[in-house]
Design a protein that fits this description.
The structure holds 2 protein chains of 2 kinds.
Chain A: E1 5-11, E2 14-20, H1 26-33, E3 52-55, E4 58-61, E5 74-76, H2 78-84, H3 88-96, H4 106-119, H5 125-131, H6 143-159
Parallel strand pairs in A: 1-5
Antiparallel strand pairs in A: 1-2, 3-4, 3-5
Chain B: H1 30-34, E1 50-56, E2 62-68, H2 70-73, E3 78-83, H3 84-87, E4 116-117, E5 123-129, H4 132-139, E6 143-148, E7 174-182, H5 185-190, E8 194-202, E9 204-206, E10 214-220, E11 225-230, H6 235-246, E12 253-256, H7 272-284, E13 288-291, H8 294-300, E14 303-305, E15 307-315, E16 321-331, H9 344-352, E17 362-369, H10 384-402, H11 406-413, E18 422-423, E19 429-430, H12 435-446, H13 448-460, E20 464-476, E21 494-500, E22 506-510, H14 519-531, E23 538-541, H15 559-586, E24 593-596, E25 599-602, E26 608-611, H16 612-621, E27 635-640, E28 648-660, E29 667-677, H17 684-703, E30 734-738, H18 756-772, E31 782-783, H19 787-793
Parallel strand pairs in B: 1-13, 8-31, 11-12, 16-17, 22-23, 29-30
Antiparallel strand pairs in B: 1-5, 2-4, 2-6, 3-5, 7-17, 8-15, 9-14, 10-11, 10-13, 15-16, 18-19, 20-28, 21-22, 21-27, 24-25, 25-26, 28-29
Helix pairs in contact in B: 9-10, 10-11, 10-18, 12-13, 14-15, 17-18
């Protein structure tokens, strides 16, 4: 164990200054230090995707990144995406399609889905399934999630 | 709205204007979960909260000869290091048996191992510190000396005389045996034209809830009360058991269940580490939090299945099934789980084999043995996937032998839809099932003939696709026959309290729990429909033993059927009470009034008379204006448990369409269909999503999931990268259809739906793989159907 290190970053647009141990991962930093508990921890080794957050516009596994690596970065969590309204239509589609049951995977799932829709506005079902393959859901069987993302993509295209 | 008889209730309390029953409406409060504002136990913090980490045995079976904790105790942040012997002063041990499972035996189990560990992962010491990281650091400094003992790992040899007995006081490694013999089995086989035998092997797998098990226990010494925040399916059961083993009264224990990150039966049991956490809180007089990490989850969350079942079926040349016989063996780990026991799955296999079929000749033996692996217990669809895979596998093998179509053999043998009520040869009583209607609907949905033609065409091009069909029955709405009769304090009844608040909204407290199935939604739908208020005026409170009626919770596909009926009955009483008050206020009679759209209206012409908001204002703030002698009761409570049938059986049928790559052994799922009959459907979307989610858990078992132990009892794939669960890219779209046969008991008519998907998915897939492999003259009867299993069957490796 070494001494805490100073970091300064933006989290959901707000500046955050903290001293953190070098071994602290980003997920624990968000959850335990900033109390942003919407970022969930499912496997702690980068497989399940429940801790997916956005760092400098790229989605990452918060359990595989150290907090000290985010010094100077901009981090967006599900709380930030919700408050800004960026994923409001996606959330509405998830609600209407019951694309969540226990909800534990959902923040990470929404993060991954929004990432896909930003890159690929017209994904087919196979592309949606492929893009979500790093996000485990144990409740829904994925079908409803694919439906919700597909319908969001459609309505975003129609709005344009 | 039309007039209705004035001297009795309408025919159905659900058949009302603006009813939510049978409608897809979004679940309340999903925004909380989608915006990251849920409250899972792993999110919770309390003042003075400390974290516990368990040091766990690296051995499957070993004697603990010494534990040295001094170095760990002196590390920064460490509050306590507690051994099993120290904890035993606070908490008594338990034995997981039920008296109705005759002969079931198990050994006393402690929260933390005392002098011996019996599986890799059993806790040997607890380290409590100000942070989880500090506790984990300190755990590395606890020195434990072990003397390794022979590990019993192979269930097939667990009963051999030369195999060590894990608990010498029990005499042998046999936890439970059940034998059943109905009809004239030997004669039936002798009279059969063909007898087909096969042995079916099921991998040991587990639930992999995305949120690991988590508990926060808060003993308040000044109040002499323990508050347990836990993601559990059965809060009152946890209350009872925590109190029992801590020497407390139940009223001294409150169990609070907020959001739960997946359960599937994993979170309906009493785990040693959770018991230890309650005890540590009492011992250390402060809140203690335990969150399992993923390795701990794999090593200590209950495992399930792991059966080896030899099956035999007799058939006449015309396809008539003459008899079933099975010999089932399962290994459950070193202890029978508490309090539901680890004999239920094998018992269910015996109950359910052959269940959809008319034959009365059935013989079964099931043996449950101890071994030095993690404990096994009830996980979603307990026993059903095994019974369904064996039954439907045998039926398909018999059809193959006779050269008749899998659909045809089912049509000839499924219990006729007009044969009810009737009983199975294992003694199950069926009130009303719909096997034939379900099968017909399934064939229509999937275009069976079209798929057969496509399959034949593709075969010419060496593309090997298969169709698999699996009919099944499912146990739902269990009465006290499941656990209560065996002495377990697990309630089979549920209670609901509804009250009109001072603004005319409804507060509803129910003893069923929510883990994402939609308990909250179905309760609000029923209350809103029966009372005549909009759903947004119904607030549902659940998961708190201080604030809900007493009841069982949500497991065994019981929430809608039992908790829903209680909600219906409570709301009927509230409705009557409201109409009594309204009649007094309006100088009318209750029979002339109704409640629609949050207002009391005339029953005959629907004209609004008084809003519930105004009625509530008068009752709560101006009771002085009511006629003398009127005491309004704007709160009502009702409980419900099925009494006529011990279980409400449902039925269904699944079909899988898949392709086998005979070069690589990979199976690609192309489509999956389910038709099931859960009686009254409260919310079609929620039912369909329960089915789909259940199917995918069954598909995981069929293709991927297996806890792989080595011969020394080491779990070799205890992480999410090596233990494979279904990912979105591998799963097919799943079409769901329904046949509706409402349960006769009660007024709601709902049966369970949560386990139907899991019950038959693996059977449908296995049958489809065998259908695809038919040109190769080989069959597979082992899941998961890994490439290795398939290539071995093809003789390629």
């Amino acid at each position: 164990m070494t001494a805490p290190m100073p970091i300064s970053l933006r989290v959901n647009g707000e500046r955050v200054d903290a001293h953190v141990l070098p071994r602290l991962n980003l997920a624990d930093f968000l959850r335990e230090h900033l109390h942003l508990t919407g970022t969930h921890v499912g496997c702690e080794h980068g497989v399940c995707g429940a801790c997916t957050v956005r760092v400098n516009d790229e989605i990452v596994r918060a359990c595989l990144m150290l907090a000290v690596q985010t010094d100077g970065a901009s981090v967006q969590t599900i709380e930030g995406l919700s408050d800004s309204g960026e994923v409001a239509d996606l959330q509405a589609a998830f609600r209407d399609r019951n694309a969540l049951q226990c909800g534990y995977c959902t923040p990470g799932m929404l993060m991954a889905a929004q990432d896909l829709l930003k890159q690929q506005p017209e994904p087919d079902r196979d592309q949606i399934r492929e893009h979500l393959s790093g996000n485990y859901c144990r409740c829904t069987g994925y079908h409803a999630i694919v439906d919700a993302i597909e319908s969001t993509a459609r309505s975003r295209r129609e709005r344009k | 709205m039309t007039g209705r008889p004035t001297d009795r209730e309408p025919l159905s309390v659900l058949d009302r204007p603006n009813s939510y029953i049978g409608k897809t409406v979004p679940r309340p409060n999903l925004d909380r979960l989608m915006q990251g504002r849920g409250l899972y136990v792993s999110d919770m913090e309390l003042p003075r909260m400390a974290h516990v980490v368990f040091l766990r045995s690296p051995h499957a079976h070993a004697r603990i000869t010494a534990i040295e904790v001094g170095a760990a105790r002196s590390l920064p942040g460490v509050i306590a290091v507690v051994t099993g012997k120290e904890l035993a002063a606070v908490m008594t041990p338990w034995v997981g048996v039920l008296s109705h499972l005759k002969g079931l035996k198990s050994a006393p189990q402690s929260a933390i191992a005392l002098d011996r560990v019996c599986w890799q992962g059993e806790a040997v010491a607890a380290v409590v510190a100000t942070s989880r990281a500090a506790a984990e650091d300190a755990a590395e400094h606890v020195l434990v000396e072990y003397q390794e003992l022979d590990a019993v790992t192979d269930m097939c040899t667990a009963l051999d005389p030369q195999t060590p007995v894990i608990h010498p006081s029990l005499g042998d490694n046999l936890a439970f045996e059940r034998n059943h013999d109905a009809g004239a089995v030997d004669q039936a086989f002798a009279d059969s034209d063909e007898v087909v035998e096969a042995t079916f092997v099921f991998g040991r797998h587990t639930g992999v809830t995305l949120e690991p098990r988590a508990v926060l226990a808060d003993w308040n010494a000044a109040e002499a009360r323990l508050t347990i925040y836990q993601g559990t399916q059965a809060p009152h059961m946890v209350q009872n058991i925590a109190a029992l083993h801590l020497g407390l009264q139940e009223q001294q224990v409150r169990v609070v269940c907020k959001d739960v990150g997946g359960s599937f039966g994993i979170k309906v049991h009493i785990y040693a580490d959770e018991m230890a956490t309650y005890a540590l809180s009492k011992m250390l007089r402060r809140p203690i939090k335990f969150v399992a990490d993923r390795i701990e989850s794999f090593n200590t969350d209950i495992h399930a299945r792991d059966h080896r079942c030899a099956g035999k079926i007799g058939v006449k040349r015309d396809g008539t099934i003459t008899a079933f016989e099975i010999d089932d063996l399962t290994g459950i780990g070193p202890y029978s789980m508490y309090p539901r026991t680890s004999a239920i799955e094998a018992n269910q296999v015996v109950n359910l084999i052959g269940g959809p079929y008319a034959t009365k000749n059935y013989r079964a033996r099931a043996r449950v043995v101890f071994q030095n692996k993690n404990v096994m217990c009830q996980y979603r669809a307990v026993g059903h996937p095994i019974a369904c895979s064996v039954t439907e596998g045998l039926v398909d093998l018999a059809a193959m032998r006779l050269g008749i179509d899998p659909v045809e053999i089912r049509r000839r043998n499924l219990i006729a839809d007009d044969a009810y009520p009737c009983a199975s040869p294992s003694g199950l009583r069926f009130e009303k099932l719909s096997h034939h209607a379900s099968l017909d609907k399934l064939l229509d949905m999937m275009d069976y003939e079209g798929l057969r033609a496509e399959q034949a065409e593709l075969r010419k091009r060496k593309i090997h696709r298969g169709i698999g069909i699996a009919s099944f029955i499912e146990v739902t709405n269990p009465s006290a026959a499941f656990y209560g009769v065996g002495g377990a304090r697990i309630s089979s009844q549920d209670g609901v309290a509804v009250r009109l608040d001072a603004q005319g909204s409804v507060i509803c407290q129910t003893s069923i729990t929510e883990q994402g199935q939609g308990s909250e939604s179905l309760t609000a739908q029923i209350v809103g429909s029966v009372l005549g208020v909009s759903m947004d005026r119904v607030r549902v409170i659940l998961g708190d033993t201080d604030n809900t009626p007493y009841g069982g919770g949500t497991w065994a596909s019981r929430g809608a059927g039992i908790g829903g009926e209680a909600a219906l009955q409570a709301t009927k009483v509230l409705r009557k009470n409201i109409l009594d008050v309204a009649a007094a206020i309006l100088q009318s009679t209750p029979a002339e009034l109704d409640i629609v759209n949050n207002s009391v209206v005339n029953a005959d012409d629907g004209m609004p008379r008084i809003e519930l908001r105004e009625l509530a204002r008068i009752v709560y703030f101006r009771p002085d204006t009511l006629p003398p002698g009127i005491q309004p009761e704007l709160m009502a409570t009702r409980h419900f448990v099925p009494r006529e049938y011990p279980f409400a059986f449902t039925n269904g049928v699944q079909a899988s369409w898949l392709e086998v790559d005979t070069e690589t052994g990979f199976v690609k799922l192309l489509r999956h269909w389910v038709v099931e009959d859960c009686g009254t459907i409260i919310n079609p979307q929620l039912v369909d999503e329960q089915i789909r989610g259940g199917v995918v858990q069954g598909l995981g078992a069929a293709l991927f999931e297996k806890c792989i132990y080595d011969e020394r009892g080491q779990l070799t794939n205890a992480n999410m990268a090596d233990y494979l669960v279904p990912m979105s890219g591998e799963m097919p779209d799943i079409d769901v259809g329904h046949v509706v046969s409402p349960a006769a008991e009660g007024e709601l008519g709902a049966k369970g739906a949560g386990e139907a998907g899991t019950a038959g998915a693996a059977a449908a897939v296995t049958n489809a793989v065998n259908d695809a492999l038919r040109p190769f003259g080989t069959i597979v009867t082992e899941i998961p159907l890994t490439p290795q299993v398939i290539l071995t069957a093809l003789g390629r490796i």
